[in-house]
Each structure stands twice: as C-alpha cells, then as structure tokens.
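Worked example 2:
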Amino acid sequence: MDLTHINEEGRAKMVDVSDKDMTKREAVAIGSIYMKKETLNRIYEGTIKKGDVLSVAQVGGIMAAKNTSHLIPMCHPIITTGCDISFKLDFENSKIDIKATVKTIGQTGVEMEALTAVSAAALTIYDMCKAIDRDMMITDIMLIRKSGGKSGLYEREV
C-alpha cells in the first residue's frame, strides 16, 4: 500500500496533484455541540453577553474553511468558491447541530475545509458561551457527502 503523504525517505510530503483534472467539488460535514438547556435558551433569545453566538460562529466557520491549509499540515491551499454554515437548535436534546457546505473548482477536494468549518463553528460557540457553561461537549463531527474528482460521489448514511 502506497502512503501518499510519505516521500522516499520516509518523511512527510504534500501530495502532488498537478496531474489531476480541475473539477467542481463539494463537501458537506456535520457536527453537534451539547449544552445546558439554559445556555441554548440564551443563545436562542440572544442574551449571551459576547453577542450573537450563531452569527459569530458562522463567520468563524467560514474563516476556518478558508484557512484550512494553515491548520492542517498536508492540506493544499484551495480557492474556496463557496462556504455556507447552518445551525439547527435542538431543544429536546439541548444541542446545536452544525452543517457546513464548502465548494471549489480545483484539483483536490474540500473535505478538510468542511470538517474544519464545522469544528471552528463549534469551538466558536464554546468560546462565546464558556463563561456560563463549561460543560459543553462537541461531538459527532463527520463528513456526510463529497462530490467531484476522480473518486466521485461519497455519501454517508446518517
């Protein structure tokens, strides 16, 4: 089995994608952050002292997607042509579900960008609310769909 991120000397390298075709690519990732019911209610009511939690988390997720190659060592810098973050407040389970969709036209996929966007959005929610709820828990971050490139369509059953 070839390890694509290892060079002939056994050290890390960035995979050469220069021979790959430029294709339209999209990746969708999801994740959740659990919290106290009071915290979720305050987010919903807009009474968190630091401001509008979901607006800030949305910007944090988009910024993270755009900067993924600065965070993940072997990721290629990618021109992000689209990034959207959405949130679903789940009052029954006291959590916020996060979904990130990232698009590009390029030679490599945007799975890492979508996963990074979800992670950063969840971390931003944590940062915005940690003064009132240090027990928040970030979970279930996963890729659920990707399209484009040589490997084509991938969809996880969730």
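The chain has one domain: 23-153. The radius of gyration is 17 Å.
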